[in-house]
Amino acid sequence: MGSSRSMLFFITLAIIILHLVAPTIAQDDGTCTEKGEYCLKCSDTGTAGDEYQENLKSLLSSFSSNTQNNYDGFYNSSRGQDSNKINAIALCRGDLSQDSCQTCLNKSTDILLKNCSTHKEAIIWAEHCMVRYSHDVIFGIEQTDPFKHLPSPNYPKNPEQFEPVLTHLLGNLSDRAASTNSLKKFAAGHATVPGGELIYALAQCTPDIDKQNCSNCLKQSVTEIRTCCGKKNGGRVLKPSCNLRYENNSFYASTAGSSVDIPVSKEGMYAYYG
Ligand SMILES: *[C@@H]1O[C@H](CO)[C@@H](O)[C@H](O)[C@H]1NC(C)=O
Ligand SMILES: *[C@@H]1O[C@H](CO)[C@@H](O)[C@H](O)[C@H]1NC(C)=O
Ligand SMILES: *[C@@H]1O[C@H](CO)[C@@H](O)[C@H](O)[C@H]1NC(C)=O
Ligand SMILES: *[C@@H]1O[C@H](CO)[C@@H](O)[C@H](O)[C@H]1NC(C)=O
Ligand SMILES: *[C@@H]1O[C@H](CO)[C@@H](O)[C@H](O)[C@H]1NC(C)=O
Ligand SMILES: *[C@@H]1O[C@H](CO)[C@@H](O)[C@H](O)[C@H]1NC(C)=O
Questions:
Q1: Spatial separation of the C-alpha atoms in residues 257 and 251, rounded to whole Å
Q2: For 39, phi and psi rounded to 5 degrees?
Q3: Which of 44, 152, 217, 263 is 20 to 30 A from 123, alpha carbon to alpha carbon?
Q4: Domain presence at residue 66
Q5: For a pocket test of ligand 6, which of 185, 186, 261, 262 has the largest count of ligand atoms closer than 8 A to its C-beta?
Q6: For the segment 57-67, what is each residue's pLDDT rounded down to a tens digit?
Q7: How many CB atoms lie within 10 A of CB 153?
Q8: Which residues constitute the domain of residue 115?
Q9: What count of Cα atoms within 13 Å lies in the side-chain half-sphere of residue 97?
């Protein structure tokens, strides 16, 4: 009796707290194609005139025709002056070749120009790359809005064992992605769930943000895995400054990832839950 009453109390308290903080939590935003090839968000802030649209077209087209000598899959630049100034960033998935990167940027910038060119701000998350632009300054600034959660429809075979392994794997990859000093803040790897199921995952930040901001962005994304993709065997947390993805199959170039060991305590239980 006593315990069920205090349980009720805590549930009520939890509901009240959730209700109080709910309005400050950003909404999952944007639309995705049915098969998840890409997700798109044209922002509502400001309508773009002809000159802005011209600048936008020239800027976005430069990404897919750009051939850097030191390819790192990251592009940033600006066009225009004053009210017609646009800043844009493009990031390819860390395991892609320059050719595959260019192909993704060409497709994605075409979709942005078709769907969002009258908007002063927009973002597209495709499977292999992300492109965003804004009238505001965006370089070097950690941005976690808008975001999109994209769960897989399928369930793991063994949910209780799956979740702690997933959490540990994503934590490991997030730490590694944030700690790299190179222009590629990217880590990929896989881990084995007892029973043999495999989880493949990656974590990536845009390299213009610093280590602390990258770590913040990815850690926050890991905590959203439950709301995003709770109990599913795959999913993506997509943000402007960082993204996470996990699947039950090897979706990245096998040379880009390695096996991550999951620590087991003496009792045979997982040592890590968060
Ligand atoms: C994408 O590539 C096609 C074919 O090369 C080209 O016509 C088009 O302008 C490119 N789009 C962008 C946005 O660069
Ligand atoms: C683009 O990024 C590079 C590397 O992070 C940086 O050196 C450069 O200043 C950036 N360009 C602009 C226009 O901010
Ligand atoms: C973007 O534009 C294309 C072609 O106009 C259209 O088929 C597609 O549905 C649009 N995508 C979204 C997410 O609105
Ligand atoms: C991944 O999950 C899907 C859906 O549950 C399943 O059909 C498929 O066999 C799994 N793939 C692997 C490699 O286990
Ligand atoms: C990014 O990191 C800097 C310190 O490096 C910090 O001052 C800033 O608040 C961080 N930005 C966000 C959005 O957390
Ligand atoms: C991630 O896992 C690898 C392989 O198990 C390990 O060597 C590495 O120290 C871990 N890194 C972090 C930051 O946890």
A1: 10
A2: -125, 145
A3: 152
A4: yes
A5: 261
A6: 999 999 988 77
A7: 7
A8: 31-138
A9: 4
- 16-57 pLDDT per residue, tens: 444 444 444 556 788 999 988 999 999 977 778 899 999 999
**Ligand 4 atom 10: the closest Cα is on which residue?**
248
Q: Who's near 175: CB < 8 A, 6+ residues apart? A: 215
Cα atoms found within 13 Å of the Cα of residue 177, Cβ hemisphere only:
35
Q: Residue ranges of the alpha helices (H) in 66-191?
A: 98-116, 159-179
pLDDT of residue 67: 75
Protein residue with its CA nearest to atom 1 in ligand 6: 172
Residue 121 alpha carbon to ligand 6 centre in Å? 38
Distance CA 244, CA 233 (A): 14
Q: What is the mean pLDDT of residues 4-21?
A: 50
Instruction: Order the strands of the 235-238 sheet from edge to edge.
Output: 148-151, 235-238, 242-247, 198-205, 185-192, 257-259
53 CA to centre of own chain: 27
Ligand 6 site-directed mutation target among 172, 214, 222, most atoms within 8 Å of CB: 172
**110 falls within a domain:** yes
- Residue 216 CA, chain-centre distance (Å), reads 13
Task: Give the CATH number, domain containing residue 41.
Answer: 3.30.430.20
In contact, 162 and 235? CB cutoff 8 Å:
no
Which residue, judged by its Cα, is nearest atom 3 of ligand 4? 154
87-101 pLDDT, tens digit per residue, is: 999 999 999 999 999
Separation of CA 57 and ligand 1 centre (Å): 11
Entry pTM: 0.87
Separation of 243 CA from ligand 6 center, angstroms? 19
Q: Considering the domain boundaries, does residue 122 fall inside one?
A: yes
Question: In terms of Cα–Cα distance, which of 251, 45, 268 is closest to 161?
Answer: 268
